[in-house]
Write a structure and sequence with these properties.
The complex is a heterodimer of chains A (about 70) and B (about 140).
Chain A: E1 2-4, H1 7-17, E2 23-26, H2 27-38, H3 51-60
Chain B: H1 3-19, H2 25-32, H3 36-45, E1 50-51, E2 58-61, E3 64-65, E4 72-75, E5 78-82, H4 85-95, E6 99-104, E7 111-117, E8 120-122, E9 127-130
Antiparallel strand pairs in B: 1-2, 2-3, 3-5, 4-5, 4-6, 6-7, 7-8
Helix pairs in contact in B: 1-3
Classes of the chains: A mainly alpha (about 70), B alpha+beta (about 140).
């Protein structure tokens, strides 16, 4: 899970590594995802997120295709 | 995972924030006693943290990494490593503070420097790539 200068850089790196393409989002979307996913991690009353809670975060951010479907 | 396990987990996170690194098993046993090691294993099995392969020392207290990574985070005058770029942006989110993320483009090696202001990355001009589908993130969380 890395930051790249652009989608062109992602494509070149995937080809060099021999990896299949995964999913690419903007840094802005990653910021929204990081806030939603991690904001409660240091709360004294923290409990593990359920699968449904985590999937709802992804869905709310429009990450709805099968790549983002949690087990 | 018991309520006491969660108390131990919260203690670990507090110490990780304070120290800028993971507390060692020896430090945790000094602070909390012999109950720590079995609690760590239960927390690992519940994906509440990640242990090293020998299942004693902490590798990840997500989003914090116990080992250096290409994703460095500074916030509030302290610094940590994120396990990945997502986790790096997650550290200021977890701390509820502004911060700065320093990473590197794996393709060209250029530095990527991002400020986090009120939860928003500035500038918003780079991209984030996830190689492993969500269904398989925990198959090998270190690789993911």
């Amino acid at each position: 899970m890395n930051l790249f200068r652009s989608e062109e850089h992602v494509g070149r790196w995937l080809e060099q590594q021999g990896y299949e393409a995964g999913a690419t989002i903007t840094t802005g979307k990653l910021g929204e995802l990081a806030q939603a996913w991690w904001h409660d991690r240091l709360a004294p009353d923290w409990r593990p997120h359920t699968r449904e809670q985590n999937q709802a975060i992804l869905d709310r951010l429009g990450l709805t295709d099968s790549f983002w479907e949690l087990p | 995972m018991t309520e006491r396990d969660l108390e131990i987990r919260n203690h670990i996170y507090r110490r990780f924030v304070e120290l800028g690194r993971a507390p060692s098993l020896a430090e945790l046993e000094d602070e909390l006693g012999d109950e720590v090691e079995p609690a760590l294993r239960r927390l690992h099995d519940a994906h509440a943290l990640v242990l090293e392969p020998d299942r004693t020392e902490i590798r990840m207290a997500n989003p914090f990494s116990a080992v250096p990574t290409p994703h460095r985070v500074e916030a509030g005058g302290r610094s940590w490593y994120g396990n990945c770029a997502w986790d790096a942006l997650g550290i200021p989110a977890a701390l509820h503070v502004d911060g700065h993320v320093s990473s590197t483009c794996p393709d060209c090696g250029d530095p990527i420097e991002i400020d986090i202001r009120d939860g928003c990355p500035v500038p918003d001009e780079d991209v984030f790539h996830v190689a492993v589908p969500a269904a398989h993130w925990w198959d090998d969380i270190v690789f993911t």
